[in-house]
Amino acid sequence: MFPTIRLRRTRMTEPLRRLVRETELNAGDLVLPLFVTPGKKLRRPVPSMPGVCNLSADEAAREAEQAQALGLAGVILFGVLPESAKDARGSGAEDARGPVAEALGAIAKAAPELVRMADVCLCEYTDHGHCGIVKGGEILNDETLPRLAAMAVAMAKAGAQVIAPSDMMDGRVAAIRGALDAAGFAPLPILSYAAKFASGFYGPFREAAASAPAFGDRRGYQMDPANAREALREIEADLEEGADLVMVKPAGPCLDILARARARFRVPLGAYQVSGEYAMLKAAAMKGWLDEKRCALESLLAIKRAGAEFILTYHALDAARWLGAE
Ligand code: PBG
């Protein structure tokens, strides 16, 4: 062994390091989440996510223009409604004049090269903040499926190019696939949040989207963070139901799940670096405790190295700028 094997030899200069580099992070791997709200010329900062705003559709289109100029893969849209516009069924989810529908149209014009993804879930539209229909304190599974299917069709009609269900009801992919096909959207792919864990790291998102559950929590439908084999079953089930792409969420705390999923399934695999992961990096950077650029790029690279082909991240614009300047 030593001194024959000296692994430092290929680390000695940047050209050598480049030659042996196994993983490369590109702007084209990244998808930017946008929170869209009714109104015009509106940019309302989200306190727990510095740099992230609730945007009106026109402002979302401006953000998308930048995303396109920086070479990002796409955007994923979430709706943010005032409390007065929410109800028990989440009717706003299928509103053809809602903020997400409006933003899809505006982004199609402003940034046609981006992939436009629509998150499909009821929690941003229900007055109780749960991802499904509620009865007697229970989140009903089968009764929620037609609501999700209706939302998916509404998003498709508004110009979404990928439908991304994040609710974690059983059977939602099949229900959405059936509804899309029946409405003439057979070519539209489904990106399933297949392995989505009940994570504390979604905290800042719920502030951004005003979607915290009014009672209880989401452990009755999102996955127990203790379970890895079950995550693979979730992915398998969604693929059998017709998912075209799958996602693991959160990303950083689930690198093992990503690696196992990558080894096991031959489908496009994504990861969502969620709001809490972003907030942690931002907070430490603002205190001067971490180098934001270095740590954000390292986290994203690690997610890619673990097996993700694309990453949803609030750092997408900055990361693309940093990668371009390197
Ligand atoms: C909606 C949804 C959530 C996230 C994405 N879609 C919140 C949740 O499940 O509570 C979280 C994203 C993030 O934290 O950045 N169901």
Describe the structure.
Helix content is 38%, strand content 17%. With 326 residues, it is α/β, with parallel strands linked by helices. Strands 1, 2, 3, 4, 5, 8, 9, 10, 11 and 12 form a ten-stranded mixed sheet that branches. The protein is globular, with a radius of gyration of 20 Å. The model has no long low-confidence stretch (mean pLDDT 97). Bound molecules: ligand PBG. Ligand PBG is lined by residues 119, 121, 123, 131, 166-167, 202, 205-206, 218, 274-275.
List the helices and strands and how they pair.
Layout: H1 14-20, E1 30-36, E2 43-45, E3 53-55, H2 57-69, E4 74-79, H3 99-110, E5 115-120, E6 133-135, E7 138-140, H4 145-158, E8 162-165, H5 172-182, E9 191-196, H6 203-208, H7 229-241, E10 245-249, H8 255-264, E11 269-273, H9 275-286, H10 292-306, E12 310-313, H11 316-325
Parallel strand pairs: 1-3, 1-4, 1-12, 4-5, 5-8, 9-10, 10-11, 11-12
Antiparallel strand pairs: 2-3, 6-7
Helix pairs in contact: 2-3, 3-4, 4-5, 8-10
The protein binds ligand PBG.
